[in-house]
Amino acid sequence: MKTFVGIDLGSTTTKAVLLDEDRKVIGHGITNSRSNYATAARVASQEAYVDGQFTLFRRALSEAHALIDLDTFLGALERAFRLEQFLEQLEDLEQTCIGQMQGERFVKAGPAVKESLAEVFRRLREEAPELYAPGAKRKSDFFRDIAGSRYHSHAEAVARDAKLPYDLLLNVYDKSIIEVENRPPAGELSDKFRRALGRVLATEPSVKAAAANIQKMIEAALAIVLEETYLVGTGYGRVTLPFSKEHIRSEILCHGLGAHLMYPMTRTVLDIGGQDTKGIQVDANGIVANFQMNDRCAAGCGRYLGYIADEMNMGLHELGPMAMKSDKPARINSTCTVFAGAELRDRLSLGEKREDILAGLHRAIILRAISIISRSGGVTNEFTFTGGVAKNEAAVRELRKVIRENYGEVTININPDSIYTGALGAAEFARRAHFGQADGSQQ
Amino acid sequence: MTVIVTPKGAPAKPVAKDDSMLKQKAMMAAHYDRLSNAPETGDKVASTFVPGNLNELIMCFDLLNNLPEVNAIQSGLRRQSGAYVLEAEKIGHSEDVCTYVKSDIGMMAKGNIGPNGRRLPDPDVLLLSYTGCFTFMKWFELLREQYKCETIMMHTPYMGDGKITKNMIDYMVKQLKQEVIPTLERISGVKFDIDRLREYLKKSSKAEDDLVRVLQGAKSKPSPIDAYFGGIYYIGPIFGAFRGTDDAIEYYRFLRAEVEERIAEGKGPVTPDGDMGKEKYRLVVEGPPNYTNFRQFWKMFYDEGAVIVASSYTKVGGVYDYGFRHDPDKPLETLAEYCLGVYTNRSLPMRIDMLANYIDEYQADGLLINSIKSCNSFSAGQLLIMREVEKRTGKPAAFIESDLVDPRYFSAANIKNRLESYFQMIEQKRAGVTAAA
Predict the structure, then answer these.
(1) Looking at the predicted structure, is the pLDDT value of residue A110 above 70?
(2) What is the value of pTM for the model shown?
(3) Which residue in A has a C-alpha nearest to residue B407's C-alpha?
């Protein structure tokens, strides 16, 4: 089956969207951009294909009215698949670590290090199923985040028991993780699906009765080849990609088109990403009529919130909820990322509450965004907010307030998949390009 | 399946130069040498600004014309302005001050070495003949402090109502007669001769005719010139120390012939990488260019097949499109009219008319504004200009930001990102129109 891939290479994350011929989204994929856009693009698009495969499973199983709870089954299948993938990457990491045992320090300690590594990885593998148990909370879905913290704690314990310097184990890990991370999981996807299915059928009592039937349908879905018909890349990393020109579109156009596809009545789009803020005006066809964006300075963009989170020793996703607790936002004018820490410490030393400072910071970001929007031509009904910051409830609350103050009652759309807006637009450009509209126009 | 190709870097080619460019280079070199030799030759020097400069009058007193703005541009092109700007900030000039001013002040502080590697002379007189940019006045106040030399400040009324009245002309002629000419006579020791002025004005007018033909050559498709990046070279002689000279006449005759030849051959503009490829986008640009990354900036256009067919910046030293020429029959009045008519002395509605007309006359795809961080004279009202031109022409407009000669304000990735978006926007818009038709 023909599929069309859009990849949005952002400064923080890389997103991919898979469309079918009928412009239906069949898969999403996301990964951290690392410092390697080429890998990020490969990983994100592979993730979208994995997700697309699940869409095919869902289609196949729901059409067949299989007598199972589809969500429970597919949830279990996905966790099992992720586990398979995790185990495969652990194996890769272990082999890479062994390969990295080079240099004088390892001549004598070599055998002991090898033994300890084997023990560390045995423990990691042993606890892996727990990480993917139903309801288990993972801090992140990225391999480095999951494997990293567990490796460190196991390695410390194992090194202590073996009376081995801990830094030897740390050393090989540090040398290996980037390499492994930059190598997308190598194994055949369909094999991993089969192994995952085996796991689910063996452990889920609810599907046992229908096992033969399910297996048949999953095999049928796996037989459909998801052909990458056309690909379009966008986002900050696009120029570093080894794509030819016709496979690259500006992210401004992609965001405009993506927002239009999500909400066809959209006329104004605000995108706050990791390092830029864009105000975009689109017409009834999703064509960009005007845009403004921040200049050289990334003040008030997503990265700013990242710094604030670091300064406060909090997770990025914890900022919004804390700011929501404030009923007296601090008045903050500067959204300079470089001075964020200084501003914060200054406020704290004056005795202001953390939640009030955070609420003030969120407001400052939105005020800056509104200035960019007004320069692009203001807000016209409907208004769509996209980008990573659209997931932050405190930012959204301020945005609604400021829009109402300046433009009255306007419909504000925020899609749960808003982070994929640019990739969606890119995928649609890919679909249109395939059907001969090289300029991406809609016929 | 998507074919992924790795673009190969094009091999570096030697910079292609037109004959007129070589001629211009020789003219500039001779001029800077004259300036550097002034302490030995005893020539006296007048510093003045490009907009509304009175080059013909200056020549009547055997004064050499030194243009601080052009020196700042030269420093920008030669990548020295960054250090000069920092030097000026060290002396106490704020970050927000016009970077031409800071480049000039910094250059003075570091020995006032000109583009020829030799010291530029101290001015004997500072002649301000255009006040549309308030910063010019402050700039000369600073230079007056530095050089302790005479300063003439002639006031040019702003064309707020969109027209030049007899009162305005009379007011300026009176300043010329009572203030400017007597002071220049005293400083130079040369008696004013109005016939000598007429002679220079006649020559100006001749070169101006050819300049207009050159710039209007861009109405052809493909455009034989880039009227912004290339245009900056084309305006050099006439906006500076050569208006009213035989050199200028020869240069523009030369240039005009080259442009006409390119039109006849159906050729596009010459770029630093040779002839431009297929013309894909025709743009009108408002605002000065960035000089610190001039070639990189230009390349972002010609690599994409974008050519600038008309620009407002090439009118800062005189608007000749609507028929104005220096007139030897009204020597003082014509100088007044020239000062009044320069681009930045025109009201916002006049600028909007001009840009909207350019889009029609030159069959452009839209308007691009390069907003200069440190130039209020240009930036004020630019968003309004953009909206209005968009509305009138129905063509898409875009906005980029950089600076004149402060390299810190040039972000290549950001500008490229916006330009690419803009070009794709034009593409989409065209396709939309075709699909609707």
Answers:
(1) yes
(2) 0.82
(3) A296
